[in-house]
Amino acid sequence: MSTYDLIIRNGYVVLPDEVQKVDIAVQNGVIVKVGNQLDSKANEEYEAKGQYIFPGMIDVHVHFSEPGRAHWEGFETGSQMMAAGGYTTYFDMPLNGIPSTVGQKALLEKVNVGEEKSVRLINL
Q: Does 90 reside within a domain?
């Protein structure tokens, strides 16, 4: 019997062609198994009876204006709103920060600010 980090049980999982009532097993932040009544254990279990589970969306064009202009839209508020809307991943556009992200130093600074301030739903 396998042991996973998390099992989400009895949710209605929205798949490409249908909706199925199944369990989802997660290991190291990755879905590793989807099936009916998984006969497994987990460090944490979540009962999703009556709830729908959708795939996370990806936005490949956001403007989080950090560093330097968080009052416009920063990583903290922007990522919170995205998570509330079902987004799991974003691609930030480079030019709204101060300094603009046109070199390695500015890129690494932007990455550090993004990692520090972006909301995380699961610790990977």
A: yes
